[in-house]
Amino acid sequence: MGVLFDIHEDKLYRLARRLTRSAEDAEDLLQETFLKAAQAIESIPAGSPKEAAWLTRVLVNTQRDQWRKGGVRKRAAPLLFAGVATPASNAESVLVTKRTVWAALDSLSPRRRAIVVLSELDGMTLEAIAALLGVAVVTVRWHLSRARRELRRVLAPHMER
């Protein structure tokens, strides 16, 4: 199990960090992923690429479950539609922008958010995402298209400022 951790920890942590709001949450998600792997050690396929895909699915599914439990849409709605003050400095502007984008990402369904993060932030191909999530490429393409449309709609009021 230690070897599995050593091989895949960096890549999984980077993904976890992009799926969560803080480094602590990413570490918790990574720990939960490897805990689940330890509990199902016989289910992990042999070979580094297959191990990585299996662990990535576990990580994404674990985060999806956490998003569902957290009622993200209820928390994100006030953030998205509350009046945003005009920033006094560039640093504040960057912070407001990041919070607005994260809130918009939070408004997406868990699957769509994962696909957007894997595609746009990690730069993965649609085929690679489909393989990781165990779905068809056309499904990934459809979710990505819908997610982009939802993000445009949610972020449109903020773009007019």
Helix and strand arrangement:
Elements: H1 2-19, H2 23-39, H3 48-70, H4 72-81, H5 90-107, H6 110-121, H7 126-133, H8 137-159
Keywords:
80% helix, single chain, 161 residues, 8 helices, mainly alpha
Helix content: over 70%
Helix and strand string, N-terminal first? HHHHHHHH
Strand percentage lies at: under 5%
How would you sum up the global shape?
globular
Q: Write down the Rg.
A: 17 Å
- Give the overall average pLDDT: 82
Main beta sheet strand tally, sense and closure: none
Low-confidence stretches: none
Output the structural class: mainly alpha
Annotation, overall tally of beta strands: 0
Q: Report the span from N to C terminus.
A: 51 Å
Number of helices: 8
